Amino acid sequence: MHGKPFAESAEQNKGPILGVLRAWFTEPGSVLEVGSGTGQHAVHFAAAMPHLVWQPTEVAGRIEGIEAWRRDAGLANLRPARVLEAAGVWPAERYDYAFTANTAHIMHWPEVLASLAGVARALHRGGLFAMYGPFARGGRHTALSNLEFDRSLRRMDPGMGVRDIDDLLREALPLGLQLLETVAMPADNFTLIWRRQYPAEGTGAQRPQR
Predict the structure, then answer these.
(1) Phi, psi of 80 (to 5 degrees)
(2) Mean pLDDT of the chain, nearest integer
(3) What fold does the segment set 8-195 form as a domain?
(4) Distance of CA 170 to CAs 59, 78, 116, 165, 208, Å?
């Protein structure tokens, strides 16, 4: 791999995730990827969807690895990776789409909330957000493997853990993020598709009246 970072899980899930993104990220536009990991997803998705301009982001220590993948790929629609901390400063630009994979269970809950708020601010009105990973529903794990995974995460760090879709819904609604679809994925994962319905709180704009 010429010194590039590599994650077997990213290699395995990139195909199924791409199938979902192709169904939803259909119009030309820009994509903010939150937590690009090794950079494998960014390269694969940018190559497969040339109608999208892909912006990878990560914490500072992982930028070099993503850049190694980007330079080798030589894709015109894949931008240089940018540093992004969930609870830090987010890009001033607005995007048509946002994507994240396997980040919510690694972040502590305040960072998950900061990430939802950041995505809501970063998306244009009507923009779509695809969120991939393992999730619980209604206070229950959807598979034994997810229960075991949740326990292993919390043993490593009590702040980590598989998140519940109901908790995400409760926090996302005031930010103007509406859950459109929950797509079942291989290995007991899901892709949650959200749409930004109105500007996020703190922008000075008002929600539409019901």
Answers:
(1) -60, 140
(2) 93
(3) Rossmann fold (3.40.50)
(4) 27, 33, 11, 9, 18
Tens digits of residue pLDDT in 43-75:
999 999 999 999 999 999 999 999 999 999 999
Torsion of CA 72, 76, 77, 81, to 10 degrees: 50
SS3 133: strand
Instruction: State both tokens at 40.
Output: 């494998």
Rounded to 5 degrees, what angle do the CA atoms 131, 16, 189 make? 50
Distances (CA, A) of 110 to 29, 138, 162: 29, 20, 14
What DSSP character marks residue 92? Answer: S
**Cα-to-chain-centroid distance, residue 162:** 15
Domain residue ranges in the chain: 8-195
Contact 37, 101 (CB under 8 A): yes
Cα atoms found within 13 Å of the Cα of residue 78, Cβ hemisphere only:
24
